[in-house]
Amino acid sequence: MQRITPNMAVNNVYESVAFYHDILGFELLMAVAEEKSGFDTEMDRDKHYIWAMLKQGGVEIMLQETASLKEDAGDFFTQIGASMTLYITVDEIDAFYERIRQHVQILKPLETTWYGMREFYLRDCNGYVLAFALQEGSQD
Question: Residue 108: which domain range?
Answer without folding.
Answer: 85-135
